[in-house]
Amino acid sequence: MTSGTSIDTGLHVVNVRFAGAKRSAPESDPVDAYAAAGAYDAFGAPAHIVEPAFPEAHTSDDPVINLGLMGGEIADAVAEGAAAGKPVLVVGSNCGIVPGVVGGMQQAHGPTAKIGLVWFDAHGDFNTPRTTLSGMLGGMPVAVSAGLAYPRWREMSKQEWALPTDRIVMVDVRNLDPVEEQLVRATDVVIAAPAEGFPGEDLTTAIADLAERCDLIYLHIDSDILDERYVPNHGTKEPNGPDMQQVLAAVDTVMATGKVVTYAVVSVWANGEGGDIALASGTELVTAGLATWQRHGMARPGSERAS
């Protein structure tokens, strides 16, 4: 047994500067600001940074193919750190990274690893082409990882096995499209409350149940889980959300399982009116999340974490 990952292994940071074939504009990209602010130092170990790039020679007119191409690059970058037993932090870009991140975890840990996804977001991103109201591909990546839409996106992202819906816990998702909500509730996905007073199942209970049934957890945060005042320039900001301390307390609940091996903070944009506020919020999510991760530790895949 192990009491957690030795910080001597270091932190594997995957900077994602692309959404499909589109590169983030330098003025909006937060990842350099995170490094400059010393956010990665919160983990208490050296950070090894890798930056997957879109394979421009293979650019397609089909945006789904481009998402799959970039997903494959993300998968390789995640797998590099995961295979070495390092905690993997993914920053930058948006929620379209999900199939690639899961694909990288599957590459590193194999087909028998039971991977759980804890999804912090104001939205479910669980639409399919048949349920979507907007047609936005950005509203579909969890459904893609669950095997409900765009198999080529998932397969090109090197996610060979669909994520069973009983291994997905959605936290908050206060704005679900009506048909999307019907789809979510027709599966075994659990919707948990980010804090007391919010709708959803009890977070502590939901996370404990997930951790009992999974070997590894991928904790994913879209910054728009925060109330809109924390991310005023976010394209899908939502009112009536949890504050920073409530979100960080929820992060602590997940990290306390000792089974988080991958942590992602995405959809943070540094540009536009309110960009400074959003960047500060993203930096706090990264810094505080790493600090609580380091404090709780990470169980080795395939081993039982000591109490």
Describe the structure.
The structure is a single chain. By secondary structure, the chain is α/β, with parallel strands linked by helices. It has one domain (7-296): Arginase, Chain A. It contains 9 helices and 10 strands. It has helices spanning 31-36, 63-83, 98-109, 141-145, 151-156, 178-185, 203-213, 244-255, 275-296; strands spanning 11-15, 18-19, 22-23, 47-50, 88-91, 115-121, 168-172, 190-192, 216-222, 260-266. It has an 8-stranded parallel β-sheet, with helices on both faces. Helix 2 runs parallel beside helix 3 and helix 8 packs parallel to helix 9 (275-296). The longest helix has 22 residues, at 275-296. It starts with 10 loop residues before the first strand and ends in an 11-residue tail after the last helix.
Short description:
By secondary structure, the protein is α/β, with parallel strands linked by helices. 34% of the residues lie in helices and 15% in strands.
- Tell me the overall shape: globular
Average pLDDT rating: 94
Q: What's the helix-strand series?
A: EEEHEHEHEHHEHEHEHEH
Return the CATH class: Alpha Beta
Q: What percent of residues are in strands?
A: 5-15%
The end-to-end distance, rounded to whole angstroms, is 10 Å
CATH superfamily: Ureohydrolase domain
What is Rg? 17 Å
Tally of helical runs: 9
Sequence-ordered SSE layout with sheet pairings:
Blueprint: E1 11-15, E2 18-19, E3 22-23, H1 31-36, E4 47-50, H2 63-83, E5 88-91, H3 98-109, E6 115-121, H4 141-145, H5 151-156, E7 168-172, H6 178-185, E8 190-192, H7 203-213, E9 216-222, H8 244-255, E10 260-266, H9 275-296
Parallel strand pairs: 1-4, 1-5, 5-10, 6-7, 6-9, 7-8, 9-10
Antiparallel strand pairs: 2-3
Helix pairs in contact: 2-3, 8-9
